[in-house]
């Protein structure tokens, strides 16, 4: 019944408004005030899902979902999750379910090789990979490992942790500053280097050098750089090669956050965007974003797993066992923030096998081609401009609209986005970079076809036609 | 096909050895060296799961799985996960899928009321609940909130964070010390108060007072107490009422970790174990442990959600939206460590509804009765003793075996456990408390019936009969 429900959902998905049109608080008066005393039939629950839940869903799997970054489901991913829930094992240690640990290590080497990650990131090269829920967890784990390694060198002392400085650009995902805060980095020691349009919003290595030198001059200790390949606002790429060179000189841990764009590196023609990763310490991508693996599945590789283990391992008596005591097995609990962990590699393994690498590459390429097509349509309309050169499957654009300065253009585009999303026919989100408010069309939903992208452009044009631009500009 | 596979798995589960009997590294030579270029049929993958994965599974759903704490799957829980994966929405903000946020808030109030949590923990009382993956995340989130609130009072200064002290007992789960380390509490400032057999391994309030006073005398700042209801080693209960009284006097945040035993509080006869929770700041239980909700589902309630939000909220431009800007909606991203979040409340809602409260209570009570029966069997055999008075559904016992001191008895019981688990017929784990090595029989798997517990006792007796106790004692 549930399988049928899901099948029907996908059959009907194009009839739903992409962005839920409910108002805050809609659900509370539709449901009972408390849990039922007696069992209710599953039919009843499914009916309520149809009637009450579906209207409150913003449909991430809708082919016209172009907001944020994609979060791709697929048959293999969903069936993998189903199996994970069915077996419901807790693979914190090897002994707690050997297959969960061993399959994860194997699949992480498979995917690492597909990405052409340097050997030192793979188990076969004395590094290794681990699956977490989200990039936030990957950042936390690597930050703590780097922090403790540095404190072991400089001494925890009275003010050790207060001296540590971390670096990112103003395009880096907010998860990084949050993770830094969580691990006790002083807020004033999160160095946010501005990125500009001249570098297509990539982090400029010279700016990093300047920031690091200035910190060292003040007696502070550079700790960590979060470089991004495919930033959230504009899919910008920080240049890894020169950034890692700077970092090495100052003994800074470099994490490469390729949450969205990392997947593209399984295509040889995109692999160059992570050239230089050999100088980094850790690398992560979210297979749940643009790699058909349902939420959640963040893949993290590190060159030095012992750095994670030194910070994150626990060995309470009640978890001791012969296999762990003898060494020679991976206990993933010591690689991550949490103890319990789901059997997530099952779905990644199923996605890789049931699609095959060739199809996965074609899938990614088809999204890039659709984004190219949209970019072309935008460029052909004199009212619009492409704000940032397109990479991958995301187009950042705006209406120029005769506005004499960005402030007015920003207002116009904000209104435009509201009316686009209000149509319910597509869902896009926005970004602001270099002071420019832009619309983001992120192609990536599993069901998106060329016609949906053409339709998206139609919606944009129609809403632009209907806008009282003069009125807004005139204010 | 996958549904059939899972159905067959449960039909056959009693034929598998509970504890996987594979050797480290068994899987690598059974799988190809890299991901396939061409798609493979799902039949092929399912066959490999049967042949290669199942032998490496330690079967947490096996009715003779008595190790660690239970991690209960159920039909409703599995179907809930399936729906979550099918819809595959990312509910970080209200707008990103209003139903995901609103249903979570409603279900957390439902469950909070079932537990008879004081009103200030519920949304209807200006507190509120949130679902995370694991207790580790709940501890991290509350620790950071408490830390930042305290630092706002005393000043971050040069050494602010270095002054903060956190408290627990030596029975507290290792996740707490790990979380404290992650948020930058100095390792020397994690105050581990020894609990003894005289208090049934509950944390003694007088000992807490002594520790806190001593820290204050040294100029340190008490920050956080993690009290446990149902500790991992022995299911001990820290006395919340007097502990919260001490904490209040010294302005210490109290978190109640009821990961396993919290579920029992839906039965009125067990509710007294959390008496005093009204003095705590936060409370968590894992619905995936003993409440039929598949991994992962940690339910956290806090009295002051704004403390979480002050520490954990982010508001980058690319996530801004009208509903959030206007307030009046919950953006759960600001209540937790990670940004992305699965639609986890769906399965908890389905578990509550498709079982009904009455059946859920009976389910828990049946496990407690089985543990009572086992306890009785142990007590009747002169070779064995109950080490800690049983509470809930776990029995802590050991073989006395004529050993003149605990060291020898510990060795005897370690060997006994090895042979029990080596049989493949049951899986138990152990704990050491007060220097005593004991075996833990944790009843809680969904399929466990009285006959499985009787069989477990038979295995214990048989292995005890076969043991050369004299030989071990004689060494």
UniProtKB/TrEMBL annotation, chains A, B:
GO cellular component: cytoplasm
Cofactor dependency: pyridoxal 5'-phosphate
Gene3D superfamilies cross-referenced by the UniProt entry: Aspartate Aminotransferase, domain 1 (3.90.1150.10), dopa decarboxylase, N-terminal domain (1.20.1340.10), Type I PLP-dependent aspartate aminotransferase-like (Major domain) (3.40.640.10)
Any one GO BP annotation for this protein: amino acid metabolic process
InterPro entries linked to this entry: Aromatic_deC, PyrdxlP-dep_de-COase, PyrdxlP-dep_Trfase, PyrdxlP-dep_Trfase_major, PyrdxlP-dep_Trfase_small, Pyridoxal-P_BS
Top-rank taxon: Eukaryota
GO molecular function per UniProt: carboxy-lyase activity; pyridoxal phosphate binding
Modified residues (N6-(pyridoxal phosphate)lysine): 289
Keywords: Decarboxylase, Lyase, Pyridoxal phosphate
Family to which the UniProt record says this protein belongs: Belongs to the group II decarboxylase family.
Name recorded for this polypeptide: Tyrosine decarboxylase
């Amino acid at each position: 019944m549930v399988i049928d429900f899901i099948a029907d959902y996908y059959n009907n998905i194009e009839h739903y408004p992409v962005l839920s049109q409910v108002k805050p608080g809609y659900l509370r008066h539709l449901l009972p005030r408390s849990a039922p005393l007696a069992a209710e039939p599953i039919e009843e629950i499914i009916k309520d899902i149809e009637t009450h839940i579906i209207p409150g869903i913003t449909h991430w799997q809708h082919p016209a979902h172009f907001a944020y970054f994609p979060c791709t489901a697929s048959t293999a991913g969903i069936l993998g999750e189903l199996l994970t829930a069915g077996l419901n094992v807790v693979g914190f240690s090897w002994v707690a379910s050997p297959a969960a640990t061993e399959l994860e290590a194997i699949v992480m080497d498979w995917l690492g090789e597909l990405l052409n990650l340097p050997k030192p990131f793979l188990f076969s090269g004395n590094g290794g990979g681990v699956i977490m829920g989200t990039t936030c967890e990957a950042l936390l784990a690597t930050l703590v490992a780097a922090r403790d390694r540095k404190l072991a060198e400089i001494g925890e002392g009275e003010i050790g942790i207060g001296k540590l400085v971390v670096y990112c650009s103003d395009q880096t995902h907010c998860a990084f500053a949050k993770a830094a805060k969580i691990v006790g980095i002083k807020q004033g020691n999160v160095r946010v280097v501005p990125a500009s349009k001249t570098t297509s919003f990539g982090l400029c290595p010279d700016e990093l050098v300047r920031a690091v030198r200035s910190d060292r001059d003040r007696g502070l200790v550079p700790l960590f750089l979060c470089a991004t390949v495919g930033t959230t606002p504009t899919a910008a790429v920080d240049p890894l090669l020169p950034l890692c060179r700077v970092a090495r000189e100052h003994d800074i841990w470099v994490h490469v956050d390729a949450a969205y764009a990392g997947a593209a590196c399984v295509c040889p023609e995109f692999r160059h965007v992570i050239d230089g990763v050999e100088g980094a310490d850790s690398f992560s991508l979210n297979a749940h974003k643009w790699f058909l693996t349902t939420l959640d599945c963040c893949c993290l590789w590190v060159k030095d797993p012992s750095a994670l283990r030194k910070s994150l391992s626990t060995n309470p008596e009640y978890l001791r066992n012969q296999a762990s005591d003898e060494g020679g097995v991976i206990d993933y609990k010591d690689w991550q923030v949490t103890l319990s962990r789901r059997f997530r590699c099952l779905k990644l393994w199923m996605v890789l096998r049931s699609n095959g690498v060739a199809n996965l590459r074609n899938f990614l390429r088809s999204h890039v081609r659709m984004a190219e097509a949209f970019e072309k349509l935008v460029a052909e309309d004199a009212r619009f401009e492409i704000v940032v050169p397109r990479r991958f499957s995301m187009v950042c654009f705006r209406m120029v609209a005769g506005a004499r300065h960005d402030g007015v253009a920003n207002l116009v585009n904000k209104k435009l986005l509201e009316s686009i999303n209000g149509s319910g026919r597509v869902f896009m989100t926005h970004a602001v970079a270099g002071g420019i408010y832009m619309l983001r069309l992120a192609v990536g939903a599993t069901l998106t076809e060329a016609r949906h992208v053409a339709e998206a452009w139609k919606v944009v044009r129609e809403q632009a036609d209907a806008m009282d631009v003069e009125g807004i500009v005139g204010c």
